[in-house]
Amino acid sequence: MNTSENKYPHRIDPMYADVIDAPSTREILSREVQYSGYVLQAAVEHYDLDGHGTTLTRDVIDMPGSVAVAALNNRNEILLLRQYRHPVRMNLWEVPAGLLDITGEDPLHAAQRELAEETDLGAHHWRSLIDYYTTPGAASEAGRIYLAQDLYEIPEANRIVRRGEEAEITYRWVPLEQAVRLVLAGQLHNGLAIQAILAAYCAVEARQEQLSLREAADTWDFHPYVEGAVSAPKLLNTRNNSLWFLST
């Protein structure tokens, strides 16, 4: 492999190497917390846009972030699970996912835990697929989707009992190409599932072209809490009880 390929392992043309998201710190003039709930905190922030007196006001929702898993079997079928989502009053086909709601938990460990809790599966091979902000115009929630392969079943004695909406979960293995068709046909609506399906499909095709995927433990320096860029909202109770953000 030549120097150019070493520098750009994902075969990004050097002409576009500067197309990359970057931090931009603006002075927060004031912040008023309006609501603190089980998994989010809503605040009104006033900030200095340009250092020349231009003040803007924005509603900001703080959330702990999330992880999701594109689990592929040896036939390149992706595991989808059907779960009720109350805010939208829908049964949605999704991928295993969950919040980073355990203080200090490594994101990869959280993804492995969610896969086990929701599907009774583990995986020997993990890679980072994509990183994203859910709704950057309003919320701080950042997420990562992992690719999990070389799957295995967790022994029954080590499985957890699913409760609430999770007790109703049903499962379906869907060939990646068919999953993409379901997305483009407008039959799937969960944003995480759509991202996971499309990214996994690209990753499988990319592997045939020897395009490198990032390591599962790849840095997550853009995440507002994981890398310590800002302080996370304080938790009153642990995940095993109720999750509650304290007003600041």
Give the topology, please.
Layout: H1 3-7, E1 28-36, E2 41-48, E3 55-62, E4 66-71, E5 77-85, E6 90-94, E7 97-99, H2 107-119, E8 121-133, E9 142-153, E10 170-175, H3 176-184, H4 191-208, E11 214-215
Parallel strand pairs: 4-9
Antiparallel strand pairs: 1-2, 2-3, 4-7, 5-6, 5-10, 8-9, 8-11
Helix pairs in contact: 3-4
Write up what this structure looks like.
This protein is α+β, with helices and mostly antiparallel strands and 248 residues long. The protein has four helices and eleven strands. The protein has helices at residues 3-7, 107-119, 176-184, 191-208, and strands at residues 28-36, 41-48, 55-62, 66-71, 77-85, 90-94, 97-99, 121-133, 142-153, 170-175, 214-215. The strands form three sheets. It has a five-stranded mixed sheet with strand order 7-4-9-8-11, with helices on both faces. Strands 1-2-3 form a three-stranded antiparallel sheet, with no helix packed on it. Strand 2 and strand 3 form a beta hairpin. Helix 3 crosses helix 4. The model is unreliable at 1-8 and 234-248 (pLDDT under 50).
Brief characterization of the structure:
This protein is of the alpha+beta class and 248 residues long. It has helices spanning 3-7, 107-119, 176-184, 191-208, and strands at 28-36, 41-48, 55-62, 66-71, 77-85, 90-94, 97-99, 121-133, 142-153, 170-175, 214-215. Residues 1-8 and 234-248 have low confidence and may be disordered.
